[in-house]
Design goal:
The structure holds two protein chains of two kinds.
Chain A lengths: L3 E4 L2 E2 L2 E2 L1 H11 L5 E7 L3 H8 L4 E6 L8 H15 L3 E5 L2 H14 L3 E11 L2 E8 L4 E7 L5 E5 L14 E5 L10 E7 L13 E5 L9 H11 L2 E4 L1 H5 L20 E5 L5 H7 L4 E6 L12 E4 L2 H17 L1
Parallel strand pairs in A: 1-4, 1-6, 4-5, 5-11, 6-10, 7-10, 13-14, 13-15, 15-16, 16-17
Antiparallel strand pairs in A: 2-3, 7-8, 8-9
Helix pairs in contact in A: 3-4, 5-8
Chain B lengths: L1 E6 L1 E3 L22 E3 L1 H17 L3 E7 L5 H10 L3 E5 L9 H13 L5 E5 L10 H9 L3 E12 L3 E7 L5 E7 L2 E5 L11 H9 L2 E4 L18 E7 L8 E2 L4 H14 L4
Parallel strand pairs in B: 1-4, 1-6, 4-5, 5-11, 6-10, 7-10
Antiparallel strand pairs in B: 2-3, 7-8, 8-9
Helix pairs in contact in B: 2-5, 3-4
Classes of the chains: A alpha/beta, B alpha/beta.
The structure holds flavin-adenine dinucleotide.
Chain lengths: 321, 265
């Protein structure tokens, strides 16, 4: 089997977990695992990656100080052409999604994005991914090719302890073109609100099932009765019914309360990623097939507008007693 | 400035049961409602707002899909879109993000454009391939997960904010023409006015086949895709939640008791 390239993702001094996960997943596929690291002053990441890889290809250049899809694409395509791997794994992250499709088109090789499981048939990947917001798994066969690119959803593979000591090979930056047509400017931190939901012990998460702004008191009363803070899915934040700092998920916050009570939330993985570490998860949703029930401890399959007011009553009774 | 917006009509499956059909490769869509893909709705709004802000320009709406997609196209026209193209051909069926990007690129190549907007990803397949693949095919730069667009110099350069994990934003400057994949929440999509809807109903939607676009059937649809869908299966879920049964009164009481027992109330 040909080499497997794994793109190491990092940002502002942090290497992302998905990188180690992919290295560990790749090691199980057989073949030589090559961590590809593009950065500036990221020797520590090269060392870390070497614990999981047979080889680290490391480009150290100011061009890679901050992510730029064009710089990454040009560097990767050059490295791929030089080393001829059979598979390239890239995280299905804000970075990977920006990069992988253009890279695949440039190289003329097949790509499947956001995979959640992977089997190999010889050299050929047979990836699984989800459709319809996690309601179905879709199994794919890729076109015959010399190289395949996959973007891998976080937590698809399990990170294990480092067990290798790969050779770290510094290579010259293969990119020489002027890339000023796309230029990094700055990072801007999310705004800080009045409540820090990452510190809350009890959270009521509200989703699109609440339907309208004017229905918000339904969940506000529940939160109040419980002494909980309100959190939300992206749909609610996009609609402007709660501020952005209440959003739980990939592009929001990661929360770990004692209780996460999800009301009218479908359980898209982007949301689940942010709350699956909660101690007790309860879901109220009228759709019995909502993916949220797959990670909740307790569920009520019903109309939230019927259940929540009753729940408020019962909690008040208990608290009064 | 001339802008192009790519829109897709998708089934709303968030609240409905999804049944795999007899082929094993599709779902029974007969009882689903359809509408514009969520981020595409924001993409349409962004293009129209830029046109309004600059006080000039055109917005061309493009969709790959069958006749029913006209409904989504007309809604975009009603909100302020100027022209519309629909790509329809048996050969387009079953295409993945790459195959779709090829058809869109072929249609867009002949147009004068400064920005092509797409949604960041589609609600149904979730590929998130079209914006970056389309840009590469058109030979222009791109940015996706875009949550802020500021035109620095019309026709020349824009500053865009990309949404990263944890709500962090990354700002970059990009030369036009370019492709921007728009993320939800970038703006507040408007409702179409009654007048707009009436006017849009009269507008012509140009229909283009693969041959019209100079594409061979082998380049598009399933044949032109990177991968073939073998089958759908129900998702593998871990342990399912313990479902509390009964009328709302009972389920609420059961849940309250559990919360009490766990010391959460
Ligand atoms: C790059 C990217 C990043 C993202 N980041 C995040 C993120 O950080 N956080 C996040 O949450 N999402 C995120 N999303 C969006 C995510 O994919 C989903 O679209 C979103 O989580 C859906 O929110 P929801 O569950 O509230 O809405 P929906 O998926 O529309 O679900 C609504 C649910 O409410 C139920 N319901 C409706 N009416 C009732 C009723 N009367 N009673 C009971 N139940 C009812 C329905 O059955 C349904 O399950 C991201 C998406 C992308 C592409």
């Amino acid at each position: 089997m040909k080499d497997i390239f794994v793109l190491i993702e990092h940002r502002r001094g942090e290497m992302r977990d998905v990188s180690v996960e992919m290295l560990c997943g790749a090691a199980k596929l057989g073949g030589t695992v090559v961590a590809v690291l593009l950065g500036k002053d990221v020797d520590a990441f090269a060392k870390k990656a070497a614990g999981y890889a047979d080889k680290v290809l490391y480009v150290n250049d100011p061009l890679f100080e901050n992510y730029n899809s064009e710089a990454y694409q040009k560097a990767l395509s050059a490295l791929v052409k030089e080393h001829g791997p059979g598979l390239v794994l890239i995280g299905n992250t804000a970075q990977g999604v920006d990069l992988a499709p253009a890279l695949a088109v440039e190289l003329g090789v097949p790509l499947v994005t956001d995979i959640t499981a992977l089997e190999m048939e010889g050299d050929k990947p047979k990836p699984t991914r989800t459709f319809y917001g996690g309601k179905l798994d879709a199994h794919f066969t890729m076109k015959d090719a010399d190289l395949y690119i996959l973007t891998v959803r976080e937590a698809t593979f399990t990170a294990e302890d480092p067990s290798k000591s790969g050779e770290i090979v510094k290579v010259d930056n293969p990119v020489t073109e002027d890339l000023s047509y796309r230029k990094f400017v700055e990072y801007v931190e999310p705004e800080v609100g009045e409540v820090d939901i990452t510190q809350s012990t009890l959270l009521v998460g509200v989703g699109r099932g609440i339907r309208e702004d004017k229905n918000m008191p339904v969940v506000e009363e529940l939160a109040q009765a419980l002494g909980a803070d309100l959190a939300a899915s992206r749909a609610v934040v996009d609609a402007g019914w709660l501020p952005a700092d209440r959003q739980v998920g990939i592009s929001g916050k990661t929360v770990k309360p004692k209780l996460y009570l999800a009301v009218g939330i479908s359980g898209a993985f982007q949301h689940v990623t942010g709350m699956k570490g909660s101690e007790v998860i309860v879901a109220i949703n009228k759709d019995p097939d909502a993916p949220i029930f797959g990670i909740a401890d307790y569920g009520i399959v019903d109309d939230l507008f019927k259940v929540v007011p009753k729940l408020v009553e019962k909690i008040k009774e208990l608290k009064g007693a | 400035m001339n802008m192009v917006v790519c829109v897709k009509r998708v089934p709303d499956t968030a609240e409905s049961e999804v049944h795999i059909d007899a082929s094993g490769k599709d779902i029974d869509k007969s009882r689903l409602s359809f509408g514009i893909n969520e981020c595409d709705n924001y993409a349409v709004e962004e293009a129209i707002q830029i046109k309004e802000r600059l006080g000039e320009g055109t917005v061309t709406v493009i969709s790959l899909g069958d006749k029913e997609s006209d409904e989504v196209i007309r809604m975009a026209l009603a909100k302020g879109g100027d022209e519309a193209i629909r790509l329809e051909d048996e050969a387009f069926k079953g295409g993945d993000g790459f195959a779709v990007a090829k058809a869109l690129a072929a249609a867009i190549k002949g147009l004068e454009y400064d920005i092509v907007f797409t949604g960041a990803l589609a609600d149904d397949d979730g590929y998130a391939v079209v914006p970056a693949a389309l840009a590469e095919l058109l030979g222009v730069p791109h940015a996706t997960y875009v949550k802020k667009v500021e035109i620095l110099e019309p026709g020349k350069r824009a500053k865009v904010g990309r949404e990263l994990e944890g709500g962090l934003m990354e700002f970059l400057e990009i030369d036009l023409p370019c492709v921007l994949g728009i993320q939800t929440g970038i703006n507040e999509p408007r409702y179409a006015s009654f007048k707009g809807i009436k006017q849009a109903a009269k507008k012509e939607i140009a229909i283009k086949s693969a041959a019209d676009l100079g594409l061979d059937a082998s380049e598009v649809g399933e044949a032109g895709s990177w991968a073939a869908l073998e089958k759908f299966t129900p998702p593998v879920v871990g342990e399912m939640a313990e479902i509390l049964e009964g009328e709302p009164e009972e389920t609420a009481a059961k849940l309250a008791a559990i919360l009490k027992e766990k010391g959460l109330v």
